[in-house]
Amino acid sequence: MSEPILKLEGIETDIGRYHILSGVDLEMPRGQVTMLLGRNGVGKTTTLRSVIGHWRAKSGRILFDGQDITRMPTPAIARMGLGFVPEDMGIFSDLTVEENMTLAAASGPLSPKRRDRIFAAFPPLATFWRAPAGTLSGGQKQMLSIARAMAEERRLYLIDEPTKGLAPAIVSTMAAALRELKREGASILLVEQNFAVARALGDRAAVMEGGRIVWTGAMAELATDAKLQSRLLGLSVEGV
């Protein structure tokens, strides 16, 4: 069995005076989509931000492809091939779509090949390429947010609730783009509240409660066990 692409060992993270993560342990297989699930406020976003270095873990260790990145600055982590899509999208509204993508391609100009690949995944971005990003719809802004992470080759994507509040047609576009990233060999750690999306995309699942991982296993196992869903997530999604 290959070494995990991402490994968290006893991660504890505080935000101000609040203790958010209480010893997160997680191993993420490479080339798969791992769903990070749980009720609101259990530490999912903090886990992603601890990995990328936005919030510094006070103890524990984070290994990305075997290398300790726990104390590395965020730009250095990103240069290693780790992309982050925050829940708040992180786009620059006053800049055009093209300018947003140019800024995201830190190692050089966005190549025509990569641009065309992004247009194939998210056709509206081609239509609004030179329009201010602030004029896009909510779904189009989310497309741009994911596209920014795709501006360079990434081995691992951390994506925080990409389908939140979006129409079903946009959700389908997002899911198709994420499947394509996986097909190309990328690994994805995905926070998602839409269980139907989690069931359709996920290979593995890790469920959080109280700032730690309380269950890991195959997404298919969780998706077909209503009692397990009720115990871990507080509701039954059988038949969703």
TrEMBL record:
PROSITE patterns: ABC_TRANSPORTER_1 (PS00211), ABC_TRANSPORTER_2 (PS50893). Keywords: Amino-acid transport, ATP-binding, Nucleotide-binding, Transport. Gene3D superfamilies: P-loop containing nucleotide triphosphate hydrolases. One of its GO terms (molecular function) is ATP binding. Residues 6-235 form the ABC transporter domain. Belongs to the ABC transporter superfamily. This is Amino acid/amide ABC transporter ATP-binding protein 2 (HAAT family). It comes from Limimaricola soesokkakensis. The lineage of its organism: Bacteria, Pseudomonadati, Pseudomonadota, Alphaproteobacteria, Rhodobacterales. The gene is livF_6.
